[in-house]
Design brief:
two-stranded antiparallel ribbon
């Protein structure tokens, strides 16, 4: 294999452009922050910009991983932001009512209540989509709108603050010199990859996303698969809700997880998963989420005005999506090598077989 063919194969890999954009965004920060890539050890903890990107991007990675499986089935989940708010509100509300907020039993019970509520939301979404046949964008829009109100009812419209060291470990604590949330994300991603790539579950999800009716006719329980992925997506959003509320030691039913569903969808698309369903890439989704979080960090590092940061963010996302589009790459990068339209080759008649009888010419 020549160098040119290797480079062509590398650039055609679905993860090449997201990784290239991620590296470019990281390098942009160096002129503004010379020690951007430096990692320091302070009080037994690792600190640095790279560690902070992974730390603050952990909730988005979790939500995006769950969103990947939903999109792979041809669906969408707009309710993950509301699920984040509901989970954090329930958990912090229960902990705040305890006499001893540091009691492990109370913390675990509060987390269990929040995660169960998240799974119930996912079950409701899956029921509406798979059983009732409602369009996913409409079915999940119900909890997206009503979920914020539910979170506000739980918190009485206030920001609930807690002081629980065990609960703070999830989103703001450290373990083995690294933020504990990194280990949580790594565990969720590893389990997801193992279930979808080491078992038949991934093929079932892709087949349902490719053609749900054909999958049902060949014996695949597409309804059950859809309900399962919506529940898993809500569970990932619930864990993200625990991280966000734990990191701030507070529950904000109005702002927690606000618009995280849009960032998750962008991360999935930038990772190479089609919104039409079918094949998906967990690794691509993780890279896409890191691109979005790095972009957010870069915006603040280079001093982009707050009122224009969303426009700047949208421009970068558009560039990444265009670079991933085969037609765009063919027109931009392939235009130099093409000197005009190719002429169609003249059809070649097949040679007659050795034992074929000679044709008889008839004179007119």
């Amino acid at each position: 294999m020549t160098t040119t063919s290797r480079w062509r194969a590398l650039t055609h890999h679905h993860l090449f452009w997201p990784v290239a954009v991620l590296i470019a965004l990281l390098l942009v920060n160096v002129p503004f922050t010379p020690d951007f890539f430096s990692i320091k050890m302070t009080d037994g903890h690792l600190y640095g910009s790279l560690v902070s990107i992974v730390l603050f991007g952990s909730p988005l990675i979790l939500v995006a991983v769950g969103m990947t499986l939903v999109i792979a089935t041809g669906g969408i989940d707009l309710s993950v932001g509301a699920v984040v708010a509901i989970t954090g509100a329930l958990t912090c509300s229960y902990i705040s009512d305890q006499a001893d907020q540091n009691a492990l039993s109370a913390v675990f019970l509060a987390m269990g209540i929040g995660l169960v509520a998240a799974v119930v939301c996912g079950l409701w979404n899956g029921f509406l989509v798979a059983r009732m046949g409602i369009q996913p964008i409409i079915a999940t829009l119900i909890i997206m709108v009503a979920g914020r109100g539910v979170a506000q009812l739980i918190t009485d419209g206030q920001i609930i603050t807690i002081n629980s060291e065990p609960y703070k470990l999830i989103g703001g604590g450290y373990w083995l010199t690294l933020p504990f949330s990194i280990f949580v994300v790594a565990a969720v991603v590893a389990v997801t990859v193992a279930l979808t790539r080491r078992t038949a579950l991934g093929l079932l999800v892709e087949s349902v996303g490719g053609n749900a009716e054909a999958s049902r006719l060949v014996g695949i329980r597409s309804t059950r698969i859809k309900i399962m992925v919506y529940m898993f997506c809500a569970l990932c959003a619930g864990i993200a809700g625990l991280m966000i509320s734990s990191n701030t030691s507070a529950a904000d039913g109005n702002n927690a997880g606000l618009w995280i569903e849009l960032d998750a969808i962008l991360a999935v698309v930038m990772g190479g998963t089609s919104l039409l369903g079918g094949r998906f890439s967990i690794g691509g989704t993780v890279i896409g989420a890191l691109v979005i979080q790095t972009l957010t960090t870069t915006i603040y590092t280079i001093g982009v005005p707050t009122q224009t940061n969303l426009v700047f963010k949208a421009l970068v996302v558009i560039v990444v999506c265009l670079l991933q589009a085969p037609k765009f790459r063919a027109k931009v990068f392939g235009a130099k090598g093409s000197k005009g339209p190719r002429r169609a080759a003249a059809p070649v008649e097949p040679a007659p077989a050795a034992d074929a009888a000679p044709k008889m010419e008839v004179s007119r």
